[in-house]
Amino acid sequence: MLTNRTKYRVIYGDTDNMGYAYNANYLRWFEIGRTELFREVGLTYKTIEEEGIILPVSEALCKYVSPARYDDMLIIETTLDKSFKVGMKFDYRIFNEEEKLVAKGYTKHACVTKAGKVVRPPKLLKDFISKHS
Q: At a CB cut-off of 8 Å and minimum separation 6, what does 98 contact?
């Protein structure tokens, strides 16, 4: 199972008037986790795009468990879900420094050519998934 843990500090711009992290930022933090998971194994979005493939989000879910606030240090845990066959799926859990769950969720990604055609995962991504399963 391929899992990455990335730290992120909540900046003031991430918060709303109540001092809590704004809900849309959790999806951005999921993206940070996903990017760092790829980077950890030597694959980048740039490399995937050079192969003519983009990975738009086709579905996202975020379950908010406890609030994150300004200056909290978060741990974004990202795991590749190898059972998803159509495109790619990543599962996320975000913890605070005390390892208390802040949020959890997932994103599903279609494999799309730059011309906009949905395709099966190319060899580059199939190899990536099988190597890290």
A: none
Write down the pTM of the prediction. 0.92
Structural domain harbouring 60: 3-131
| Number of structural domains the chain divides into | 1
Model pLDDT for residues 63-83, shown as the tens digit of each residue: 999 999 999 999 999 999 988
The sheet with strand 3-9 has its strands ordered as 3-9, 73-80, 88-96, 101-109, 57-64
The SS3 of residue 7 is strand
Contact 87, 121 (CB under 8 A): yes
CATH code for position 116: 3.10.129.10
